[in-house]
Amino acid sequence: MTTSSFGALGVPAPLVADLATRGITSPFPIQTATLPDSLAGRDVLGRGRTGSGKTLAFSLPLVARLAEGKRAGKRTTPSRPRGLVLAPTRELATQIAQTLTPLAEVAGLRVTTIFGGVGQNPQVSALRGGVDIVVACPGRLEDLKGQGHVSLDDVEITVLDEADHMADLGFLPGVTRILAATPAGGQRMLFSATLDAGVDKLVKRFLSRPVTHSVDPASSPVAALTHHLFEVRDVAAKRELVERLASGTGRRLLFMRTKHQARQMARRLTAAGIPAADLHGNLSQGARERNLAAFASGEVRVMVATDIAARGIHVDDVDLVVHVDPPAEHKAYLHRSGRTARAGAGGDVVTLVLSEQRADVAALTRAAKINAKVRPVDEGAVARLVGEIAPRVAPQDAPSGAAQKPAAGGRAAGGRTAAGGRAVGGNGAGRGRSRRSAGAEGGLHNPATAESGATKRDGAVKRDGAQGERPGGSTDQRAAGGRRRRGQRSAANGPRGESRGQGVRGGGQTKQGPATSAGRTPGRSQRRASSRGGAVYTTSTTGSSGFVQMTDR
What we know:
Blueprint: H1 13-21, H2 29-39, E1 44-47, H3 54-71, E2 83-86, H4 90-106, E3 111-114, H5 121-129, E4 133-136, H6 138-146, E5 157-161, H7 163-169, H8 172-181, E6 187-192, H9 197-206, E7 211-214, E8 225-232, H10 235-245, E9 251-256, H11 259-271, E10 276-279, H12 285-297, E11 302-306, E12 318-323, H13 330-337, E13 347-354, H14 358-367, E14 374-376, H15 379-386, H16 447-450, H17 514-517, E15 522-529, E16 536-542, E17 548-552
């Protein structure tokens, strides 16, 4: 931290006063380094580690310069914002807007967010009402631009936050199109934790003689962090240690590789008396915001999240980060770990390592410049990390933000239906309907496909979410295999039958319902290869009834 003040750096007095009311009086190094140039209107390239204060570093000049233009007579017209901030995830866009909005209100400016996963009509209405600053994820912004709901022709200042993350997710083509649609003479600021080749291309094409400020090396661990690498003998021992680490009274953030694992871990902890919320791409936007709010308020002390969701978690006073599943590469390790020790505070990071993961974790920590070594579980160290143990909470008394396993025949607290039907709102994982056979027990349909593993880079990627958004502005899609076509049978379901008919396996017989016996003309047919034994079936749909029959060929 530095002894300089925001006023001395050139921040207008009304904004300085607003910061003071929130207890923000001294700028951090990235702010001290960039504000004089950004307030002067120069293009800025700022590099700083996670938690270094980059959001405020670009929010202050964005608001100050747009407010100055407003006083000079510039007006914002409907659907034509003057300021644009691009972010990779919904959570990050929301958090940026939360930082920007109080400053904008002081200056008489209006802010709105644009991202997928929610209806576009409120966003279109806000644009038509006239907003000065838009904080957006690239996919939905391109959608609205293509529909004619927003024009970028009046954008004077463009900010690209977490540029390296956008490159990792494959968003750069969309970001390139968006930047190309803004006026060439406008101010552009790019902030990132690292400057990889993809980010460098954006800098060379869109920034004019940028001033570069780097307050950390490209791969910089947080100095205030203490790293612990514990080797566990098997998965059972790992789960037991996770439960112990999560049992303290402070905030704990646990990271898993996949959405399915994050959900299951959060449910398992809640069932054990440790209320835990989950955060991943299969949650609806409302559920994600509710779970994050529960964690930020302290209503729930434990959150289980996926890798990409790490970029949207900006919560102070996280005492412990646990890599339940070690990340795939060192940048993910640094971003995960950066959720603690924010704004100069200290924190601990624990990585749980199975014996077969030792070599990979050693390579990862070397790349991240972490000096800690893998060692057996130290009971004394674990006890210190846990600290005071919180009282256990019966699952039925857990807060609403805690993840719960659905009860048979009912609806879980998170918003899933238990025995079929449609999951509405809450922690709903999908938008389709889950059809089950009449004899099936309660539970979610086909979790193996609905909650698939790691995020796909080239395939169907959930857009604008914690698992990223699909580049190029296409509509939301679920991972391949996550949704069945109408009447298509899933071999993973077990019991035979669909809600629109019964299929018969073996003997070449066809079980036929009243629709075909009445002489209706069958509709389209197609051959499908069964996943069981390679048998091939013909599925026919009769005219208007939608009856499905399956014949063994």
